[in-house]
Design a protein that fits this description.
The complex is a heterodimer of chains A (455) and B (475).
Chain A: E1 2-8, H1 9-27, H2 36-50, E2 51-53, E3 59-61, E4 63-67, H3 70-83, E5 93-95, H4 104-128, E6 133-141, H5 146-161, E7 166-173, H6 183-197, E8 200-205, H7 206-216, H8 224-239, H9 255-263, E9 271-277, H10 282-286, H11 292-305, E10 341-350, H12 373-376, E11 377-382, E12 391-399, H13 403-419, H14 423-427, H15 433-451
Parallel strand pairs in A: 1-4, 1-6, 4-5, 6-7, 7-8, 8-9, 10-11
Antiparallel strand pairs in A: 2-3, 9-12, 10-12
Helix pairs in contact in A: 1-2, 1-3, 1-5, 1-8, 4-5, 5-6, 6-13, 6-15, 7-8, 13-15
Chain B: E1 3-9, H1 10-31, H2 39-42, E2 45-49, E3 57-58, E4 67-69, E5 71-75, H3 79-86, E6 98-100, H4 109-133, E7 138-146, H5 151-166, E8 171-178, H6 188-202, E9 205-210, H7 211-227, H8 256-274, H9 283-290, E10 300-304, H10 316-326, E11 342-352, H11 356-366, E12 371-372, E13 380-385, E14 394-402, H12 406-421, H13 426-430, H14 437-459
Helix pairs in contact in B: 1-3, 1-5, 1-8, 4-5, 5-6, 6-12, 6-14, 7-8, 12-14
The chains are: A alpha/beta (455), B alpha/beta (475).
Chain lengths: 455, 475
Amino acid sequence: MSIVTVQLGQCGNQIGFEVFDALFSDSHCPQGLCSKRENEAYQASCKERFFSEEENGVPIARAVLVDMEPKVINQTLSKAAHSGRWNYGQHSCFCQKQGSGNNWAYGYSVHGPRHEESIMNLIQKEVEKCDSLNGFFIIMSMAGGTGSGLGAFATQNLQDQYSNSLKMNQIIWPYGTGEVIVQNYNSILTLSHLYRSSDALLVHENDAVHKICAKLMNIKQISFRDINQVLAHQLGSVFQPTYSEEGSFHYRRNPLGDLMENLVPHPEFKMLGVRNIPQMSENSLAYSTFTWAGLLKHLRQMLISNAKMEEGIDWQVRPPLSGLPTRGKMSLNKEFHFNTSIANLVILRGKDVHSAELGAFKDPALYTSWLEPVHAFSVWKTQRAFSKYEKSAALVSNSQFLVKPLDTIVGKAWNMFASKAYIHQYTKFGIEEEDFLDSFTLLEQVIASYCNLGF
Amino acid sequence: MTQSVVLQVGQCGNQIGCCFWGLALREHAAVNQKAIYDEAISSFFRNVDTRVVGDGGSISKGKICSLKARAVLIDMEEGVVNEILQGPLRDVFDSKQLITDISGSGNNWAVGHKVFGSLYQEQILEKLRKSAEHCDCLQCFFIIHSMGGGTGSGLGTFLLKVLEDEFPEVYRFVTSIYPSGEDDVITSPYNSMLAMKELNEHADCVLPIDNQSLFDIISKIDLMVNSGKLGTAIKPKSLVTSSAGAFKKRQEKPFDAMNNIVANLLLNLTSSARFEGSLNMDLNEISMNLVPFPQLHYLVSSLTPLYTLADVNIPSRRLDQMFSDAFSKDHQLIRADPKHSLYLACALMVRGNVQISDLRRNIERLKPSLRFVSWNQEGWKTSLCSVPPVGHSHSLLALANNTCVKPTFIELRERFTRLYRKRAHLHHYLQIEGMEESCFTEALSSLSALIQEYNQLDATKSMPAEELPRLSVAV
């Protein structure tokens, strides 16, 4: 089954390119550490999911590129064409001239309705190229105007028009110290709208990825390209093919469906975080060896202590002793807190993957009480190594990972809203104070729900 | 990609405008070596086939044939505009996009605004519509003028109202030269005050600049150049004041150095909209991010570096120095000290080989020494444009919405009051039809209200941030 990707705005398009590039490079990587037949099956599965075939044999990304100004799309298209290995469809993009001015209201209320038909037509064409549609992957940032506002509008359209297909929004959480001054407004409006129309929100924080680049990858002068490549690597580690069940050697056909089924049991809880280890520069990789036991131990501790990367993990955080009645509500002020999960998915790729021992992830103490660990935890595997890492482990978690960042953004937006600063820029295009209040209410609800998972 | 139209009004406006077009051509020639008419260059220039009679058939793609500036030149005296049209840039201007008169405005805002305003309204509308027609997607009008005289000040602000009515969706960015202390035009306080009211009401964004600051910057550069402190020579093209290597070399005029600074400001302001980069910033984003309340739309600007040394290897310490300089009061284009006042918002527009980590490192470093208003503690807007300006490997333009503009306005009000109290020269204004004393008193209260807004914000500086309780929800 195939996934159609919608790349929105500058961020969405810049990342989208790196994602397809990472997927392609990995699937053609000679160091798969498995048999030729295995490798071919992997490649074929990846191809079916993400690329379609053109006459001249060059794979075409199953993607629709949307932006309200032309510079980024032009760059993205030319980068893909120059790579010579894969390309975007000739008629897969929709562009305007003026941009959204970092204004969510403009993206949502003006560009959205104005270009609804054109954009949905493009998506329809891409969907028709698929033998069978698994769902949509929408890449967007929250801070700007197009990705955020138009992204929210487009997701709603997808909800209406393709109600049977799954939608996963890949959201970029902006740097805490702004890239855009009104980013907190744009973010809360985006999140509240997506919460109603998307099936899952997979979040990547710029601050976290930046630290990975600095500390783990040892990059001195970090560019957005570096950040996007780390992000693409993380996404690839989740969405590249894996076996459909324990002991099987056929590749999973319904990744989005399986993921949603495992991780989003309740519509109130849609926020997913990703962790992927190991992550290091190629030079360091040459000198490192890994064991599954070591990797999984680290990954588990990253999960329960909410570490965003493999360095600086707090080993003091422990799951509460089982048998104790309640752990209580999560306090947002406490520095180190045990991260309660609703559901977790671990994805293992590489050598001897069947020997990996995952019992520690099934500990009921990790989870909220309303799901049995057998339902709360799932694992996907493949022997085929990912992107030159002999062994790699990814975690997709529906847990309290994102409560603090969400609370921070809501707090800042609220603070600014109280002074009414910048509101005139939104009311100009039909987003009223009421809409802001609705968004705040919804998100406070989400925060409260996640905080109470410990009960 | 969008287009912008420059409206240069009055002597000052046209002289700055002239420098701007020379530097714009220089910049595009450096970037666009194959002389293809691309989207970047189309933002400020039309490509015209001059063989076609009449309007000059516009060519939208392909090789550059003849570039015409998207500009309208307005002056009520002929001297400056004639000089431009006889100078080396004559081919760049469309001779039909001019509005001139002979008698001048006599340093009288009322003559510029009321007399010439009504006289030339139709013509102005016609030229504006023409320029707009030539644009695929017109996003912005840049108005360049001075505040202290008659034409730039009076007719320039009349233009704002016309633009607002005729093109409400197009942004109006105004670059205004404010009179310095030792201004020799006696009536400049009247002119500036009357113009301020119009700027308050009809401009989207104003970049106030004063001659004294520009002059101080030039002195600083001269000092460095002549002090012999620098081991190696300065690259001539890199001087923010020079037009070396400009497309058409003209005889350097006295104000050229100062005007080039303003011209560079405009180029850097629009660079991220014209050229590609990893974090683009379009012109509509400037207003969105930097104007939290409609009246507070005055942005203090600073440009760094002022020159580049011929030494090509710039260690990152120099890069950091560039950021520090942007916040020093010596680099502001208006006499203001942003570091010791309150920031409402700040934009950093970086060009050249600078990455997001450099930007973040410097924001972290400088943040503690800057005071931001309580509801915008991390009020930073950033952009990264890959194309550096001519002669530099990187540059930074900082735009601050900061209460440090207040002293300029207070001083203006004081100078105005001193004149007005004595009714000095008032009759020159009141004898113009449509002018009454109420024009003056209204302008005064408009400015006072603005100053009061800044006062209120400043008062919050020392108060602790009041945290409004969050919404509580039942779970």
